[in-house]
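Regression test attached.
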Amino acid sequence: MQKRVIITVLGKDTVGIIARICTFLAEAHINILDISQTIVQEFFDMIMIVDLQKSTLPFADVADALDSIGEDLGVQVKCQDEEIFDKMHRI
Amino acid sequence: MISKREIMETNRMIEEENLDVRTITLGISLLDCISPDLEVLKRNIYEKITTVAKDLVATGEEIEKKYRIPIVNKRISVTPIALVGGAACHTPEDFVQLAQVLDRAAAQTGVNFIGGYSALVSKNMTAADELLIRSIPLALAGTERVCSSVNVGSTKVGLNMDAVRLMGQIIRETALATQDHDSLGCAKLVVFCNAPDDNPFMAGAFHGVTEGDAVINVGVSGPGVVKVALQEARGKDFETLCETIKRTAFKITRVGQLVGKEAAEKLGVPFGILDLSLAPTPAVGDSVAEILEEIGLESVGAPGTTAALALLNDQVKKGGIMAGSYIGGLSGAFIPVSEDKGMIDAAARGALTLEKLEAMTCVCSVGLDMIAVPGDTSAATLSGILADEAAIGMINQKTTAVRLIPVIGKGVGESAVFGGLLGYAPIMPVNTFSCEAFISRTGRIPAPVHSFKN
């Protein structure tokens, strides 16, 4: 069964945001299910849906790692279990 | 699959509109700790609380991280201590020792408040009940995290006016015992009518005797989210207004349900209830008063306030009930004056009076909450206010609570500062005509008739 997690990235656009995040996800065996990304007035905005089922790292470590990648890049990277969105928006 | 718009909406609520889960409260029964030996009792209580609640704070933090939703408070409620300590405590000072044990257990588990230093005396007081009540000023002055509550009446049995009279004195004594901190002790003391057994909110939380060994109860929040949603409904009809509140309440409550179920599962404790009260904080944009003003009042307290509040709370319940599997606790509007920026401003500009606040409690407000009154307010007058509020609860078959702070050494025009979530409050004037002769009468007000409603 999939263990779906939403990753949102928000901040000033810079070179290599997607590359850094995707490299980390690949190394941790985290599969990307969907990506949607826009840039509005130099602001980078990305939402990814990923599957942690085969991840080599537990959720908390993934969240911490993404936090520090975000700090490096000067953007906010947030990792949340999909259930909070499902529960709020689906009956 | 979840859409980008939905993801952004949820995260906007959390980041910009102060959506949070206000509290996960672990209720713990202490009935199996009872011993006639005070030292054994103290050891049993400490061990039970620190064992059952040892993972509470860590579990809360884990859930916060998983969903990135703040869980503002992790708290504990226990069986009313008058019941637990009755066999071992023979003086008020004995009970104070139990308060100190609760305080230490709370510190050890990392919770900011522990509730249940309580007595349920709606009909009459046992010797132990009275000893506990008389120990409250010392207990609250000598501890940091302990919260106390006393239930003085109910719709079924009427009002125990001996307890009402005593509580007026106890509130004054608590104010005097903590006068160095603007009488802060009174902020941790609630007087109830129809107190619920499963309330997760402090200072009135206790673990009722109808509950099991342990339970997780959750208080949701989110006045800021409702206010922002209502900006879209400006100038629209009541149907649109009500639908907007309901839809928003549903979303907020679903988050509480998710967090509560998950906390219960991780802790291996049954999930009890969700409390639907919209709980404000002193932060800008996290205010129930601001919702009422968004609905169309120049200031909370203006004519129309009671109707707007009735509408708001009923819609919150209608939306929230469908979102949660079990609803309980207080589930009313919290309008604590010191803890809500909009209420503080309304009181300061003279738009809001004690009498209007009392009227608001007739429809759905939980009570006269966190109201600072002049330090020279007499015990009889405090009892009179308690009696009025309890009568509203008794007759209307609802919970009412009073948390009054007579700020020793201060008067109208000055402010009391409590800090943190407890906020600050302008001191409100109190009607100075006497009710001494009324309050001096002994005995009970009989239970009301349950028919011929008018």
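Expected vs. actual: identical. The domain at 4-89 of chain A is CATH 3.30.70.260 (Alpha-Beta Plaits).
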